[in-house]
Write a structure and sequence with these properties.
Oligomer: single chain
Largest sheet: 6 strands, mixed
CATH superfamily: P-loop containing nucleotide triphosphate hydrolases
CATH class: Alpha Beta
CATH topology: Rossmann fold
Number of strands: 10
Strand content: 25-35%
Strand order of the largest sheet: 6-7-8-3-9-10
Radius of gyration: 17 Å
Number of helices: 7
Amino acid sequence: MIRIEKLYKHYERGLVKALNGISFEVKKGETCSIMGPSGCGKSTLLNLIGALDVPTNGEIIIDGKLLKDIGSLAKYRSKQVGFVFQFHNLIPNITLAENVELPTLAISGMNPIHRKEKALKLLSEVGLEDRAEFLPTKVSGGERQRAAVARALINSPKILLADEPTGNVDSETAEFIMSIILKRCRKYNMTTLIVSHNRDIAKQADRILFMRDGCLIG
């Protein structure tokens, strides 16, 4: 599903080398954790796969197609990729349900009632059915992160990219978030990359990749 070939990403005219020629493959439906020290290129890698940035060199192949040759990267992001960020990135002045609905707005023709129903169903799955009409500022950090997971899943993405999805929550909430992610991955054969510093979280994936200084070390 995802193939990375000799991927480089440099900043500041080559002075900052975030990725240095990494290559690997993740099969369809596989869950893969990525571990490594801060600054080793983990988040950069997810941003490149998610088309939030472009590589300096190398290739990203998604389901047999070069990412750079995909016509609309915005469409790719909205229909094929779900993102979970370490800091939930919810919009503070709209409700949790409205935040979860946001990715569906890029899909033309979706019935607003159906959109709301999908959002409420996902919020129920993550244990937030009674918080749907709350603003993000009126719920806990763990609840905000659970809402962010629901938002990432609403378009039934083929690829889920999770950057430290449990980094700012307590251990009980972290286990709950991981159970949601893994259950969805296995039920819908979703290919998933999870960046984590927590080995207990990382080892729940099918495979762990280790990074250091922009390179894969195992």
